[in-house]
Amino acid sequence: MTGKKEKGSLTIEASMVYPLFLMIIVTILFLMRIVYTYGLIQHAVSQTAKELSMYSYIYQIAGIGDINQNIQGAVSGRTEQFNSDVENVISLYESFGSGDGNVSYQGTTSPTEMLKNIGGVLLGEGAQELNDQFFLLVVKPLMEGYIGADSKGNSADKRLEALRVVGGMDGLDFSASSFFADGSTVDLIVCYTVDPLFPIDIMPEMNLANRAKVRGMRGKNVFTGQEAEGGSGEKESVWDKSPVERGKLIQEQQNVRNLPDQFPAFSAFDPATGTATAEVSIDLRAKSYQTTAGIVGTIRSQCSDMENYRTSTREQVTVNEEEIREKVLIVYIPSSTGDRTIDRSAYDQAVNEVQEAYPDIRIVTKEID
């Protein structure tokens, strides 16, 4: 009798532990299912990004990429000034909140310039949004193809729903992606939510993201006579870069800047001579700079920022407007080379017009390869 009682007690213990053991096993299997889902979507994202990089050849040949980059380059200065004005407003508000009444607004004061800055931001954002929407029309069908149907023949949408992806294909959010924002990169980002089904409620919905970043194929250089990216080992010209990347490379090469990157109006200041220097690059090959008016607009905008400069501080660096005795604007333009001829006639005329409007600013032109 004693032996039977002991045997029965062991059976009761086992029956209590066995369901818990099964739930743990099933939970592990569901976790593996989430990992499988992540890997499936990552595969689709990677393959889609690679395919987009090949299709980007058509995008570049059609001139859509140039149009987008020209717009971004034309409004980049306005966008930077708008961001600087916003920072000044925030600093002013915080100073008033702390009881400091000696701080004054140092941003743009001209209503016309303010409207131009706002318009530049809206135009730049709108152009990039249109560019991204153009690609998103292609991304979803490609993703659907790489996710594919399951063994039962269900569509990619049904397959994702079976894997507990909220919304299926419609639940994939590509809004964080960017396409040729820097002129050459496809950055595909997809965010989605998985609603796991566990026998043990150990976690709520999971927000996941997959990303693939590839360089686009820029084959048009073969036809224009320019060296294709990754071709021979020769150094690529800064003028083949996007406007934002070009500006950074030129500043690194010329080594003029000694002020923080976000400092308003000026790149450098020499306390010994009182010289404040600003820099701007203009690619005279761009369509927006084929007329005098286009060039005048860019140079005049920079001169206006210099003329309206007020004492500012960034990263503990202060430049007082009273200490500025000379203002210099360096304009970088492409030089004529063996395979590149630059017509400066419209540019020289534009410089003369702006110089007459801003006689206190010395405009210096520097040609670089």
Please explain how this structure is put together.
The protein is an alpha/beta fold and about 375 residues long. The protein has 2 domains: about 20-235, no CATH class; about 235-369, Trna Endonuclease, Chain: A, domain 1, CATH 3.40.1350.110. It contains 8 helices and 9 strands. It has helices at about 1-60, 65-95, 110-145, 155-160, 220-225, 245-255, 290-305, 345-355, and strands at about 180, 185-195, 205-215, 270, 275-280, 310-315, 315-320, 325-335, 360-369. The protein has a 4-stranded mixed sheet with strand order 4-5-8-9. The longest helix has about 60 residues, at about 1-60. The N and C termini lie far apart (about 100 Å).
Biggest beta sheet attributes: 4 strands, mixed
The helix tally amounts to 8
Order of helices and strands: HHHHEEEHHEEHEEEHE
Into which percentage range does the β-strand content fall? 5-15%
Q: Stretches where pLDDT falls below 50 for ≥5 residues?
A: 74-79, 99-109, 114-128, 219-233
Helical percent range? 40-55%
Number of self-contained structural domains: 2
Strand runs, count = 9
Give me some keywords for this one.
369 residues; alpha/beta; Trna Endonuclease, Chain: A, domain 1; four-stranded mixed sheet; three-stranded antiparallel sheet; 15% strand
In a few lines, what is going on in this structure?
The chain is an alpha/beta fold and 369 residues long. It is built from eight helices and nine strands.
Secondary structure elements and pairings:
Layout: H1 2-61, H2 64-97, H3 111-147, H4 156-162, E1 178-179, E2 185-194, E3 206-215, H5 221-224, H6 243-254, E4 268-270, E5 275-281, H7 292-307, E6 312-314, E7 317-319, E8 326-334, H8 345-357, E9 361-368
Parallel strand pairs: 5-8, 8-9
Antiparallel strand pairs: 1-2, 2-3, 4-5, 6-7
Helix pairs in contact: 1-3, 2-3, 2-7, 7-8
